[in-house]
Design goal:
The chain is of the alpha+beta class. The protein is built from five helices and 14 strands. Strands 1, 4, 5, 6, 7, 8, 9 and 10 form an eight-stranded antiparallel beta sheet that branches. Strands 2, 3, 11, 12, 13 and 14 form a six-stranded antiparallel beta sheet that branches.
Length: about 250
């Protein structure tokens, strides 16, 4: 006689285990997010800035996030879902480990990192399981400054100034007016002032922006990322906003 198997209540599969037997589920929207990353070329290399907030919807949940990653002499800045950025960081760290283990004297340059990130993003998009991020990749390779952008669709472009999130709408016009076409003239002091002005404008206008900012630069000497600092703000302008305080 064939054996008979009975499932009693305490042997039933847990709901999570049962769900895994069905269709694959992909992330349909980001959860903990970072907003704008700004970057542009200046006299000595690339300057970037991003705030330190990981927002849970409209709640300022995590206030000390680092949205920059150094890959050799290349700097990667991320906007969008923070867990997907962590996934990309693991992939880039694995790539660096493999490069180190090869021990062939070769180093992955900025353009190679940019190509790698864009291929990962485009591949995930084609599997209908995108990483919900936009990346800025910058560096100095062979004496030439490089700055590129990649979004969750794998769309890429290179420019003298780029931005993710709300910065693409509010900060890019400011950057184009003040630094585009002047990359060989803009000093580090001027670049810092421009970045602070742009980040301050975003703080005033973007409800998911934060007043603690990290600034980073990439030059021929390497990558430097500052400690978080607070922007100087003036909220007296709120009195001129129609409906404020009504």
């Amino acid at each position: 006689m064939d054996p008979i198997t009975l499932e009693v209540p305490h042997m039933l599969r847990a709901p999570a285990a049962a769900a895994n037997q069905g269709a694959n589920a992909h992330t349909s929207q980001p959860i903990i997010t970072g907003t704008s990353v700004l970057a542009f070329k200046y006299k000595d290399g690339i300057m970037m800035a991003a705030d330190t907030l990981g927002a849970f919807g409209s709640m300022a949940r995590f206030r000390d996030e680092n949205r920059f990653m150094q890959v050799g002499d290349t700097l990667v800045g991320a906007g969008g879902d923070m867990s997907d950025f962590q996934y990309m960081k693991h992939m880039l760290e694995d790539m660096q480990t493999r490069e180190y283990d090869m021990d062939d004297g070769q180093r992955m340059g900025t353009r190679s990192v940019y190509k790698y990130v864009s291929n990962v993003m485009y591949g995930r998009r084609n599997r209908f399981d995108p990483l919900w991020n936009a990346y800025v990749v910058g560096g100095v390779e062979g004496g030439e400054r490089f700055l590129g952008y990649v979004n969750l669709y794998g769309t890429t472009y290179e420019a003298d100034c780029v931005a993710t999130g709300f910065g693409a709408h509010l900060a890019i016009p400011m950057l184009r007016k003040r630094v585009e076409g002047r990359a060989d003239e803009v000093t580090e002091e001027e670049a810092v002032a421009v970045l602070d002005d742009c980040m301050r404008t975003l703080l005033y206008r973007d409800c998911q922006a934060f007043n603690r900012v990290r600034r980073a630069k990439v030059t021929a000497r390497g990558v430097e990322v500052s400690e978080p600092y607070a922007l100087q703000t003036d909220w007296s302008i709120a009195d001129y906003v129609v409906g404020y305080g009504a």
